[in-house]
Design a protein that fits this description.
It is a single chain. By secondary structure, the chain is of the alpha/beta class. The chain has nine helices and eight strands. Helix 7 links the parallel strand 6 and strand 7.
Length: 239
């Protein structure tokens, strides 16, 4: 569920917050919705939602695999994963790599996993867009390098900023632009890093944007330093 977003933001679909603090509340909420299919995209490391769906009598329970387990350095199946899988009838994966890891590490039969690649809305392909440069007061001659990704550790912003410091040594006529949700409050630390490296004036860390197409159209180079993507939406959008 997305309790902080309006239903109009997701094609008019009604949104309900699922109370996972109490099994009985969650089961009652799911029974009230009476879904035929329960599809969990949860990133929580537990089985509360799918077990509640199973106990509520939902006919089909589906879970998703959207990354390649970089959070799991030992590549060992977890007890909560086994519990989720026991309550799951089918698994969707965003890439063949994610599907292969699910089968190999979690021991799920490959016939139970379906690969559905991410899809994105194709932005306006008109390349003549200087809105972002005007907004940031950047000259047209400056080469823009950009990255769209929420400010989370696995997205690799620190690596990108350190690398960009070296880029500036060889390409001083370059500027880095990033945008994304500051979900873990990491943006301030990244700004401090840019100041520490002496490149704060050459790095723009923007908040999440509705007009993401204007970012892509303004860039000369798109770079994606993330450490855990299964099938990156941002790379697809940039392409």
């Amino acid at each position: 569920s997305f309790p902080t977003r309006r239903s109009s933001d997701l094609a008019g679909m009604a949104l309900r917050h699922l109370p996972l603090g109490s099994d009985s509340e969650a089961i009652a909420a799911i029974r009230q919705m009476a879904p035929d299919i329960f599809h969990s995209f949860s990133s929580r490391r537990n089985a509360l939602d799918v077990c509640a769906a199973q106990n509520a009598g939902v006919g089909v329970v589906i879970t998703s695999r959207g990354n390649i387990r970089k959070w799991d350095e030992q590549l060992r199946v977890q007890d909560w994963e086994l519990e989720r899988n026991r309550a799951t009838h089918r698994i969707t994966a965003v890439s063949e790599a994610a599907a292969a890891l699910c089968a190999c590490i979690e021991g799920v039969g490959r016939e139970k996993i379906t690969v559905i690649h991410n899809g994105v809305e194709i932005p306006d392909l008109d390349r003549a867009d200087s809105a972002l440069r005007r907004e940031l007061n950047l000259p047209e001659a400056l080469q823009l390098v950009g990255y769209a990704g929420n400010y989370r550790g696995e997205k690799g912003h620190e690596d990108l900023i350190h690398a960009f410091r070296r880029v500036l040594d060889a390409r001083p006529n370059t500027h880095l632009v990033c945008c994304g949700l500051n979900t873990q409050g990491r943006k301030a630390a990244l700004e401090d890093l840019a100041r520490h490296l002496g490149i704060a004036s050459r790095v723009s860390l923007l908040d999440s944007r509705v007009d993401i197409g204007s970012l892509y159209r303004a860039l000369d180079v798109y770079v994606h330093p993330s450490r855990s993507e299964g099938f990156s939406n941002s790379i697809l959008e940039a392409m």
